[in-house]
Amino acid sequence: MFSRDNWKEIFETIQKNKLRTFLSGFTVALGILIFVVLFGFGNGLINTFDEFFGDDATNVFYVFPGRTSMPYKGYKSNRQIEFDNDDLAEINKNFAPFLEYSTPRIFRSGLVKYKEESNNYSTRGVGPAHQYAEKTIMMKGRYLNKEDIKNKTKYAVIGRLVEKDLFGAHKSIGEYIDISGSAFKVIGVFQDDGGDNEERNIYIPYTTRQLIEKNTDKIDQIVLAFKPELGYAGAMAFETSLNKFLREKKYINPKDRNGLFIRNVADQLKQNQQFARVLQLIVAFVAFGTIIAGIIGISNIMVFVVKERTKELGIRKALGATPKSVIGTILLESIFITTISGFIGMMIGIGILSSLGEKLKDFFITNPNINLGTAIFATVILIIFGALAGYIPARRAARIKPIVALRDE
Amino acid sequence: MIEIKDLHKSYKMGSNSLHVLKGINFTAESGELVAIMGSSGSGKSTLLNILGMLDEADSGDYTLDGVPIKNLNETKAAKYRNKFLGFIFQSFNLINYKSAMENVALPLYYQKIPRKERQERAMKYLEQVGLKEWAHHLPSELSGGQKQRVAIARAMAAEPKVLLADEPTGALDSTTSYEVMDLIQKINDEGNTILVVTHEDDIAHMCKRIIHLKDGVIEKDEKVTQVRASQYV
């Protein structure tokens, strides 16, 4: 059944029936193409989500104060809560077994100058651990360290784009920049996967910031990282007890929703990932529908092909073709066409996906791609069903009496 | 070569059945050229189809070259057709996307003869029917007479025991008809057994024996003096 001669016969038939070949090939190629592209878009959506939420460490809580909306223990409502160094120290003391690291954050924004260049950037007064919380990647020099905090050094770590704006091609490390009137020495340049805005930040020691601001001890935000081995449930329990502790310390009504906020990255990430998975499921469902449509398409064409060839098959039978060889001719032809065109469609689809890359980022699709295994699996499924769909009419054609087939005009 | 005893065949047409062949008996020896004549509906094509194993009889015996043809499954029938029989149809029945040579070579493909030998043999038979120069033309590029000659070459290619021709001249004008009959006579001269179904008197008289069918029975079975077609060509 698979001799060279049979293949030659099939090739000739394919070559000489171009429209038929084109129709069935096109259906299959299109089906696979759409499947691959849709599935790739689904993965692209997930990539976007991962990128949005994946640039920061996931075992991090951001704790920030608000304005109370309820009176509590003699304090009136509408009171602005403020954190200070003491709060952070107490958290570190009381929750030591849970904590991996912690850092305060103080946000300021102001004019930054270097020689003739100047621009507005936001400055973050932070501790050394902030590097891990933001997953800051050092390109040149170093990050802030404990000594900088202790000595309240006037050192600054600037983002890649800050360096580009202010220094251009010049060397930046060791140079002094003017941040809102104070001179800071640049000790490092960083990049961040979080995007351009992240790379327009400047990090300075939080103690230096406090010193500049009349030696205050206030801090804007507390960033806490719990130990990853706590797991999701442990992290949730930690969040609850931390919440309780801070509310007691700062006299905030336990039911007050506005006095204190804890943003849990892990929890958010989980929700967003679930959302992305649901989206992918929907896309996969649509893609699966495309495959079904492809199967129906190829089935229709096979029925048509057999119908069109009824007379030819009758002639072949009169000349001595056995039912087996009739079925074989039709099936091998169909499998051959679906295989070739299926893989062509697959390759085009993969080509489209890889050429897109970042171009659809505005539509929340980043680096759309498809696992090669999935693509091949879908193609093989289509080939198998194409063959099955061809087998039924082929078997019927093989059974038709040659005399009936010959009469067919 | 061919032996038929008490052959019956009826077709179901809705609720009533149409009795087409009502007990046919005849024998054809090797090398005979037999015309089967009869008006439309007399059962001549049905008889030929049964002889060609394209259709099956309801009852009766059919022996072809000493082999009883009975209860054949499709595969076996296909093999017998390929080995024993060559067909010539009124409407030629060439495969339209294959060249003349490929059409002739097709029965040999089903005999599993290697490609090269197939093509050589196909060319040999095309030469015999005088169409060597047309070997690579498609049927659509050939005239009716040429198509029928390709079909005859195809029927001959498998070197069958019996050639069955169903109205071989039915779609041709008289000059071309005589050319085709001339070819059939020449093939018969070489000792091939040929059965020709026709309703044309002059064609029938170019055979050596005429069987007249009427209403499903043999009305008359006569030997005739053969009129050579070559005199008209």
UniProtKB/TrEMBL annotation, chain A:
Segments forming domain ABC3 transporter permease C-terminal: 285-402
One Gene Ontology CC term in the entry: plasma membrane
Pfam families given in the database record: FtsX, MacB_PCD
Main location, first listed in the record: membrane
Domain of life: Bacteria
Domain MacB-like periplasmic core: 21-228
MF terms in GO: transmembrane transporter activity
Membrane topology field: Multi-pass membrane protein
Transmembrane intervals: 21-41, 278-305, 326-352, 372-392
The entry's keywords: Cell membrane, Membrane, Transmembrane, Transmembrane helix
Subcellular locations according to the entry: Cell membrane
Name of this chain's protein: FtsX-like permease family protein
Family: Belongs to the ABC-4 integral membrane protein family.
Automatic annotation (TrEMBL), chain B:
ABC transporter domain location: 2-233
CDD domains: ABC_MJ0796_LolCDE_FtsE (cd03255)
Superkingdom of the source species: Bacteria
Record Pfam families: ABC_tran
Keywords: ATP-binding, Nucleotide-binding, Translocase, Transport
GO molecular function (one): ATP binding
One GO CC term, this protein: membrane protein complex
PANTHER family the record matches: CELL DIVISION ATP-BINDING PROTEIN FTSE, LIPOPROTEIN-RELEASING SYSTEM ATP-BINDING PROTEIN LOLD
Family listed: Belongs to the ABC transporter superfamily. Macrolide exporter (TC 3.A.1.122) family.
Protein name: ATP-binding cassette domain-containing protein
